[in-house]
Design a protein that fits this description.
The complex is a heterodimer of chains A (240) and B (194). By secondary structure, chain A is mainly α. In chain A, 56% of the residues lie in helices and 5% in strands. The longest helix of chain A has 30 residues. In chain B, strand 3 and strand 4 form a beta hairpin. Chain B is globular. Classes of the chains: A mainly alpha (240), B alpha+beta (194). At the A-B interface, helix 3 and helix 4 of A face strand 2, helix 5, helix 6 and helix 9 of B.
Chain lengths: 240, 194
């Protein structure tokens, strides 16, 4: 049996392509001339025993299994005239690409190893150093101090409760009418600035639009983004 | 920045000492241009002479550091031979390496950048969100934009950290796919991987 150079670091196959390449190499096949149908049963055998399969990647292994079975079943049937790219060709291309990815990974691993031999400034980080817990280092006083400072911190924490107010169009309408009655007219921008929340501003604006629509008030805006001045519509009052 | 009338340095030794001090203090690699500008080097040849002298000096047996060119900059590092000694002195655990999924993902990003997670997952036939996240956290790759396809997925590219981590000066130092194939003594066509 051939030893696999890529299996040094792990017992698991990282993915379906990893396993397929392993089977191809194991059977001493050329990647360009592999008969996918031939290695399908071997692949399925691995899947059945879950031997060397990374459990977190099981779904990915099953996906490829279905492709393999599809390819095998196609090979048993008379071939249709022509297809742009057969599933077999597609899988082969993916495999060839993956073979290169493994080679690059191998190369990067070597570079990484060489680089890890070199130390730079601030390389000796605290978490790299093996440290044993030294119990004597901490006195009961220090422990108590830590505990009480934690309690104090907790006590200082304030909780902000965000309340949501209910605004109704009816109540807003009365409020706006009241404001108009007091001043004779209403500068809507100034009115909005005195409000608490965006929600209230929105309700006020809808109310204003509704009042204008119903003809209760007249709103005049001199130019875009300017304030809206609102008056009572006297014609409406007479009508009432 | 430098006063042209009165040169800061007179001799080669002074310049070498200055470069060494700068590199000794600096945590990150320093661009050669910046040093050249500071030293008032007229051309690259003059600068290379300084660097060459330093490298020659560090090569001798009684020195524990060496000059490293990485990520387009210069940096002082320890000698590779002293790795075991340093590990022993600082009682350092096994240095952490990238996992195989991360390495595979990085291989794809390095050679195909900018690339989306979907493309990486397709090439590996394995969901690759995890390794991408891991590499992002390590700042070895970055989001470099969005692909103009439905969903506007993020595109990923390698960073300067990538170059530093693997001791590369720039991306062109990575072997081409033709060279890679030769390295592993394979007969197949390297053309598919752009």
């Amino acid at each position: 049996m051939e030893t696999d150079i890529y299996r040094i670091q792990t017992d698991y196959f990282e993915g379906p392509l990893d396993l397929l390449l392993h089977l191809i190499r194991k059977n001493k096949m050329d990647i360009m001339e592999v008969k996918i149908a031939d290695i399908t049963s071997e692949y399925l055998e691995y899947l059945k025993e879950k031997k060397g399969i990374n459990p977190s990647r099981e779904g990915d292994f099953l996906m490829t299994a279905s492709t393999l079975i599809y390819i095998k079943s196609r090979s048993l049937l008379p071939k249709p005239d022509s297809m742009d790219e057969t599933p077999e060709e597609k899988l082969m291309q993916t495999l060839i690409e993956y073979d290169k990815i493994q080679k690059i990974s191998h190369l990067l691993r070597n570079l990484e190893g060489a680089e890890l031999m070199l130390w730079r400034r601030e390389e000796v980080l605290e978490d790299m150093i093996e440290k044993e817990f030294n119990i004597e280092d901490v006195s009961s006083f220090q422990l108590a101090e830590v505990f009480f400072s934690m309690v104090r911190k907790k006590e200082q924490e304030e909780f902000l409760l965000i309340e949501s107010k209910e605004y109704s169009i009816e109540r807003k309408r009365n409020e706006i009418l009241g404001a108009i009655n007091a001043e004779g007219y209403l500068n809507f921008s100034e009115y909005i600035e005195g409000l608490d929340s965006l929600q209230e501003i929105l309700v006020s604006f809808f109310t204003l639009l509704e009042m204008i629509k119903q003809g209760m008030v007249i709103g005049i805006q001199k130019k875009l983004f300017d304030t809206i001045n609102v008056w009572r519509n006297d014609a409406h009052r007479i009508h009432q | 920045m430098t006063d042209k009338k009165e040169p800061l340095f007179h001799t080669l030794e002074e310049k070498i000492a200055c470069v060494e001090s700068i590199l000794f203090v600096s945590k990150d690699p320093i661009e050669p241009e910046r040093i050249m500008d500071f030293l008032g080097c007229r051309n690259i040849k003059e600068f290379e002479e300084i660097i060459g002298e330093m490298e020659k000096n560090y090569r001798s047996g009684d020195r524990g550091i060496c000059l490293k060119r990485a990520g387009g900059g210069l940096q002082l590092t320890t000698k590779p031979d002293n790795n075991a000694l340093l590990k022993k002195f600082f009682t350092v655990k096994v240095s952490s390496k990238l996992s195989i999924p991360s390495l595979e993902t990085l291989a794809i990003v390095a050679y195909r950048q900018p690339v989306t997670i979907a493309e990486i997952s397709h090439l590996r036939s394995v969901n690759s969100v995890g390794p991408v996240k891991n590499l992002l956290q390590k700042k070895i790759i970055k989001i470099s934009g969005r692909k103009k396809v439905p969903g506007y997925p993020c595109l990923y590219s390698t960073t300067r950290e990538f170059l530093l981590y693997f001791g590369l000066n720039d991306l062109t130092e990575l072997p081409s796919l033709e060279e890679l194939t030769e390295m592993f003594e394979d007969k197949e066509q390297p053309s598919l991987f752009k």
